[in-house]
Structures are given as C-alpha cells and as structure tokens.
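Sequence and structure are kept together here, with a separate record for every protein. A complete record is shown below as an example:
=====
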Amino acid sequence: MYTGKKVLVTGGTGMIGSHLVEQLLERGAKVRSIVHQRKIPDEIKNKGVEFLEGDLGDSEFSDRAVKGMDFVFHLAAFTGGLGRTSIHPASTLTPNLIMDGNVLESARKENIDRFLYASCTCVYPNMEKDLTEDDAWTGNPPAVHASYSWSKRMGEMQSIAYHKEYGMKVAIVRPSNSYGPRDSLDPQTAHALGALIIKALQKMNPFVIWGDGKPVREYIYAGDAAEGMLAVMEKYCVGDPINLASGEYLSIEELARKIISLCNYKPEIAFDKTKPSGQLRRVLLNNKSENKIGFKARTSMEEGLAKTLKWYQTNTQSG
C-alpha cells in the first residue's frame, strides 16, 4: 500500500513519529516530515526524507506541507506531560486546536487519499475499569491535564466531522502511554517513563516521584505504536477511534523502582504530594484493534525498557 506513495508525517522528528518515518521508508514510501522544535534524529537523517521547517499553526505553511501528498499522518502536538500542561493550559490548548484545524483543512483542499489523527489516552475520564473506545465520552477528563485532553478530544471530533461531511478517509488512534528511544532529553517535556530514566541516570537521591506513585499506566513501545498506525491507516480509515494497547501495565512507583534497578543504584524514594498524581488508572483494551486490524504489540516491557535505557545512556552526558 505504501510503496511509491508520497506521505507526510507531522511530528516526524518525535519519538513515535521518527519510528513511523523509518517504517514508511522500509515500505517504499516517499516521506516528507516537518521540523519545528525538535532536532532531526540521526536514525532518519540522510535517508531520503524531505524535511520542511516551519510551524503548522501557520495555515500557509500547512498548505505547503500537505501539497502533493497522498497520505497524511498527523502526529504533531504541543504537549509535555503533567508539568507543562497543568502550568501552561492556554499555550497547550489553543495551538493544538489551530494546528489540527489547519492540517485537516489543508488535507481536504489537497484531496489527499487518507488521513490519520494521532489522539491519546488522555481523552478518557478517570475510571478504574479497563477502557474501551466507547468510554471516552462517558465523563470529563481529569482537570489536571484538561487542556491537552480537550485539544485531543476536539481533534478527534474535527477529524470525524471531515470524514462525515467531506468523505475523507480518516483513521483515529489512541495509543497507550508511549515510550522508547528518541524521546525528549529534557525532563520537562519527556514522556513520564523517559523523565524517570533521566532522573535515574543522573543518580538523583532522593529519587522524587510526583504525587503518591499509585497511578497505574499501560505502556506501548514507540515502534509498536508506529506499526499500529500503519495498520489502522491501511485497514480502518472510517472515522472511528481505535485503541493501540500492549496489555502491559504497572504503577508509577513500580516503574520507577524497575528503572532504578536497571540503573544499578539504591536511592531513597520520596513522593512529592504537592504535585499532581494524574488519573488513578489508565489501561486500554485492545480487542477492537485486534479484531479490526489484527494489531498486537510485539515488544515486551523488559525488551523495550532495555532499548530505551541504552538510547538515553548513549545520548546523555550522564550515561
């Protein structure tokens, strides 16, 4: 399906995006990626990718980015974990709404064949049950990251609206908490797992965990999430959100202890309960993606953590 196709990946220099770019190249696609605030990872440099530098919040640049493309994978987002989204709600919500609207409208005007919108698990309300896709709108998302959650909810709604009104072939994915090589090296913008690794490599003592460490999260390796996106784009472009889940989950404290053990030191563990803990439990059911697209994550937590830790050790002075 992808051989010879012209494919735009927004957010292609990010963690999942760069893995997606790699996999598209392996399938023979001609890839264009956007460069905004992240450096181009070495793994996708000099591989024939066309890089455009600019801000998708500018509608003219968005039109230029989408021009001539067959498919668009829209992964770009203003994000950064609880630390950023709770302190900067306006500069999280508004730029995401503008960017998502721009890219969708550019894709419509260009009459692209297929469009994928990367949503996230943050759209779900705080529930103790394992989550099916239908649970997303049964309540409000947690207030602590409401700005980012609502931007993703609205992005989903925009994508579904374009599918319904204009007949665009639209795929929508909700990956579990993603991790892997090529995450941010800044603990303020890295995903939760990456931020914990950075602290461990710096031999932080006491090792401070935000909140009480009890929230449970499911994790999916970035390469697996990218594979799932390729499968959804190919088999389920019907304007209907679909989870990409691994089935592996543990509490924040359990994850921190596992990472500390891998880094071979024994700090005191402290909990900063002045900081938000986040949702109590966020575990997705993968039944729909298994049935609709045959997706099942292949990378175990043990294998994925080892690869991620090795990347951080190589790319930080602390390693």
